[in-house]
Specification:
heterodimer, A: 288 residues, alpha+beta, Uridine Diphospho-n-acetylenolpyruvylglucosamine Reductase, domain 2, Enolase-like, domain 1, 3 domains, 5-stranded antiparallel sheet, 13 strands, 26% strand, B: 182 residues, DNA polymerase, domain 1, 5 strands
């Protein structure tokens, strides 16, 4: 026996009403590809599942006032092939295309990937590099939280699934000079957890030969998708050369703190891979 | 515990079933509807044996609470043939020896069908991507990939979109993913 009731509300206000009535025994579920297993294995408990995937108002990818907004009902498969995302934030489309398998991507949602709060979330990592924000609604109203604040620990979101609902993730368009890439190293291309994965966002001004903005997110090398801030700052502080890129990659690999595990390899190896992939990605981005 | 009513269209027929709220779609298909073509493998979303097509998209029925599928259109392997005629994919799997133990076959067929419904002439890479969530421990995938390409030719021929000069794709033109890697 797992959950004893299951409901599929048609709008957000109904979700909040149902959660309130359940008094802490109800829990939000979207695609459920992580959550259902955690419930079945007894890692989490809920008497009532409140399924938000029948809510039409949460199924959108749109652009507004320079932001790109993605509703909580949007699946990884939908993000991965969306033309706006491919054009404006290719790393996010790539990351979403790496999650699980085609069958998982058809069901699992991008916002759910953030709420799952795994340190290697392939959808969440590009969002972290894009400095995305999460919209959370409750009976008390709505609030926006920076993605970095959406994590409380490994697998634990700071969004309370018993009385809050994350309805949207949004990030600013990068503009003409912006560009993004993601990377992923795993034993297989499908259904394999990454040894390292990450995303790079840069705004490069070729006339000054400078990176005006660099944002990097790496997983799974910390409790949550990790931003190597010294490496970002270093990339922004110098005119660009091979040496600078190499040094930034080295700094990032020093900042990252992967563990030695039988599943993912040694700390030394994984740091080397962070360095290698970052160097390649930045180089790649600058070459267009 | 209160039983809940769920209604869905399975292989073209509307069904109404009363189930415990934590019934999974896979169990509903196999136990309540006796459609045992959908296989139970890992039960944790990793093997693809339980793949079905739900509202046009491949889905793992072991991860879907049956109540999530309320109102959905479901296709299982039992619904692939038409008027006692095997689907071209089923024919091609049979003719090309793409089946050994058969446990992954229903899931493979449905992943392949979802692909060919969207893309009549997929490349080998696109075929590999489409079945990347379906594990086979017998065939090594080579014949499965060949069979999907042969089926693509059969379907296009049927629909008249295949040039008459162009034969149905021959199965052994280097399609194997193992070639050159020995």
């Amino acid at each position: 026996m797992n959950w004893i009731d299951y409901q599929r509300p048609k709008d957000v206000s109904e979700v909040l009403r149902v959660l309130e009535q359940a008094e802490g025994r109800g829990r939000i579920v979207a695609g459920g590809t992580d959550l259902i297993l955690q419930l079945q294995q007894g890692q989490l408990r809920a008497d009532l599942l409140v399924d938000i995937t029948a809510i039409q108002e949460l199924k959108y990818i749109q652009t507004k006032d320079g932001w790109i907004q993605i509703g909580a009902g949007v699946t990884h498969a939908e993000v991965a092939k969306n033309s706006l995302i491919l054009k404006e934030a290719r790393a996010l489309a790539e990351g979403c295309g790496h999650v699980g398998s085609p069958q998982i991507r058809n069901v699992a949602t991008l916002v759910g990937n953030v709420i799952s709060a795994q340190p290697a979330g392939d959808g969440a990592i590009p969002l972290m590099a894009l400095e995305a924000e999460l919209k959370v609604v409750s009976k008390e109203g709505a609030r926006w939280i920076p993605l970095e604040k959406a994590y409380r620990g490994i697998g634990v979101s700071s969004v309370n699934p018993f009385n809050e609902l994350a309805t949207e993730v949004k990030f600013k368009k990068l503009g003409e000079l912006g560009n993004t890439r993601s990377f992923r190293m795993a034993r297989r291309r499908s259904l394999a957890l990454p040894i390292v994965n990450g995303a790079v966002v840069i705004i490069f001004n070729p006339s000054r030969n400078r990176i005006e903005k660099a944002r990097i997110a790496i997983g799974p090398v910390a409790e949550k998708p990790f931003r190597p801030r010294s490496a970002e700052a270093f990339l922004e502080s110098e005119t660009i050369s091979r040496k600078v890129i190499l040094e930034a990659a080295r700094i990032a690999s020093e900042e990252a703190n992967p563990r030695t595990t039988l599943l993912r390899g040694s700390e030394y190896y994984r740091k080397e891979m962070v360095k290698l992939y970052l160097m390649r990605m930045v180089q790649n981005l600058l070459e267009g | 515990m209160v039983l809940k009513s769920v209604r869905m269209r399975v292989n073209g027929n509307w069904v109404n079933v009363k189930i415990p709220p934590d019934r999974m779609l896979l169990d509903l298909l196999r136990e309540d509807l006796s459609l045992t073509g959908t296989k139970k493998g890992c039960e944790r979303g990793e093997c693809g044996a339980c793949t079905i097509i739900m509202n046009g998209k491949t889905t793992l029925s072991c991860l879907i609470p049956a109540l999530k599928a309320d109102g959905a259109d479901i296709l299982t392997v039992e619904g692939m043939d038409q008027r006692d005629q095997l689907h071209p994919l089923q024919e091609a799997f049979w003719e090309n020896g793409a089946v050994q133990c058969g446990y992954c076959t229903p899931g493979m067929l449905l992943s392949a069908k979802a692909l060919l419904d969207e893309n009549q002439e997929p490349t080998i890479e696109e075929v590999k991507m489409a079945i990347s969530g379906n594990l086979c421990r017998c065939t090594g995938y080579t014949k499965i990939i060949q069979a999907i390409q042969v089926a693509s030719g059969k379907i296009r021929k049927k629909m008249g979109t295949l040039e008459s000069a162009e034969e149905e794709k021959k199965p052994s033109d280097g399609a194997g993913m193992c070639r050159g890697k020995r």
